[in-house]
# Entry
Amino acid sequence: MASSDNFLKTPSKTPMNDKVSSSSRKQHHHTTISSSSSSSKSRFEAYNRLQSAAVAFGEKLPIPEIVALGGQSDGKSSLLEALLGFRFNVREVEMGTRRPLILQMVHDPTALDPRCRFQEEDSEEYGSPIVLASAIAETIKSRTEALLKKTQTAVSPKPIVMRAEYAHCPNLTIIDTPGFVLKAKKGEPETTPEEILSMVKTLASPPHRILVFLQQSSVEWCSSLWLDAIRDIDPTFRRTLIVVSKFDNRLKEFTDKWEVDRYLSASGYLGENIHPFFVALPKERTTVSNEEFRRQISQVDADVIRHLQQNVKGGYDEEKYKSQIGFGCLRDYLESELQKRYKEATPATLALLEQRCSEVTAQLTTMDSKIQATSDVAHLRRSSMMFASSICNHVGELIDGAADPDPEQWGRTTEEEKSESGMGNWPGVISEIKPPNATLRLYGGAAFERVMHEFRCAAYSVECPPVSREKVANIILAHAGRGGGKGITEAAAEIARAAARSWLAPLLDTACERLSFVLRNLFDLAMEKNQRRHFDYGKKSGDMEGYVGFHAALRRSYNCFIKELSKQCKQLVRHHLDSVTSPYSQVCYESELLFSGNFTYRNQTTGLDLSDQENIPPENIDRETTPGKIVKAGEASMTVPETPSPDQPRDGNYVVKKENGNFMEGGGRKRHPRIQGNGNGKMLGSLLGQNGGTTYNEICSSAAQHFARIREVLVERSVTSALNSGFLTPCRERLMVALGLELFAVNDEKFMDMFVAPGAIDILENERESLKKRQKILHSCLTEFKAVARSL
# Structure
């Protein structure tokens, strides 16, 4: 259907308002198609039936149609009643209806009284004829209220279709839209005016629709409230017919011919090529017979012409403007213009119907196959396994890197990922973390790697927190009682281990959740990718469209697989954290192992920033995160310079010297004295502040260095490879096996539960019946249009 709009894009070579110039109007007036013309009537009936089918089945068919637009009090309802030839009090329910009304007027010389029938909701069938005018208005109101209550909305674009057969109405179909309002009525949402305007714009936007815009004569064009809204839809008024309603209210202002001619030309504000119609209708709302109502309409037309001829000095330019004045001229023009559009569009409509009939037949064949397949377990197993395998392959392709489907539509920025995953900011991180490419919409492997890089940035922005003197005293006294000379070093290491367990563990959990969110999103992308591939290559094998139960089970199994991976990865990285923070770990003492070379943290992939935004941290403050390494908070790349060997001269950098077989901390700072004999009392006094708190400060400084070593080892040696192997490798190698075991390694009865769940067969049967009805009515319309085409 994507190309269907092109079928009827056969607009006339001249704009709508050029066609209503004086010469064209004369032609329309003298060549109006007779209501008794068999060819025009058959063409009109064919389009009416096609329109009814389009409404019933939701078909988007570009049928030539007239759409009436206007404000709440601009005379739109009176115009509709005049076209019908009888009153049915539509004005009384105009504020009550919030749905479009499609009026199909059929000229039937045998219908001396109007016969009105409403099309049933969601059906192409019409109900019983309605005779009473009051019943027509009540039906419109009740149907509107019922639908709005069901949809919980203030307005609805779903139209009400009314067919009126009458000897005194033209062959004309017009869509009446809810009137524009400035303020919602009591009891309605405040957004009702905006919703009406939006809905009307949507109805009027299709290029195959003719717009009839009503503006009452008492309003100057320069101060029109709704003219700009029409310009938004049709900027040049090429397909818009402007009707000045309540024209009789303006007549008393004219005294000379030039005043009348200037007003009728409407060239000042609307433009030279815009030629409105000027219409006045009976104001009397008392109950009169239909015949009297039509006589009053004709009388008003005659009174307007007589006033311009007799009460205006010099009259008016009748040759130029007479065809623009009066309801009769407007009615004849609308009927002939619509018939002309119908005739022009018939070949394209015929081609479109042939296409839609073929499409519906193909859909019906597919539905029959699905219903038959519900009893063929082997076929369903084969098709569903092929489908699941295809989804798994697409997931692997997306992880390895892909640009289809469009990342701008399907990708997410860093902020969108954080918001939709519900994780928010990294726990314990105060500064805002903005990794490279944070503003780009990424998915799959690219989004996974961006989260990994963001985790590194977050981890390196976390420092060892301050420790109270009481905590330090409790730790160091316990170590002092054990003897030996490593009390200060052990105390600092213990503080660093506890801080690492407390502050880095939440970061690891958050990283796992964020990564699992990225992988969960791949299911929808894989489904989209699979659907496009089937569409592009016309593949029918493994087509599981419509099997809602199977799709739900497949999605559930995939999400469970990713959830289990996340759980396992959390346990794995927690194990690595427990390992590097264990008292038996040598991470805090083996500084030469980390700093024996020029270790550089620079990821060549994620460090490449392709976004427009600079990777600037919120606070441009340098701080030391590991010995010998100065970084900025949130910085993407960090370098650890080579640590000098013990034989090199001291230059103020932190070094490790080996004395008597033990590693001792040294360098530019004062070395920690060994705790020997009763030096513990002196050390404790220093710790508690008796000698300036030197020992306490040294312990805190050493703990920060140990924390940085633990963080470095955890991030660079353990977590990165663990998360990659824990998430990505299973998705590539074990996904299909996991889905297969859960979905297909079951007996036939349990397997078929995905396809023949309670009510599933009934749903398929109902869809087939709906397709059969659609096929029948479309074939009927096609046959009818072939006959119409032969008569052209």
In short: Residues 70 and 76 are 7 Å apart (CA to CA).
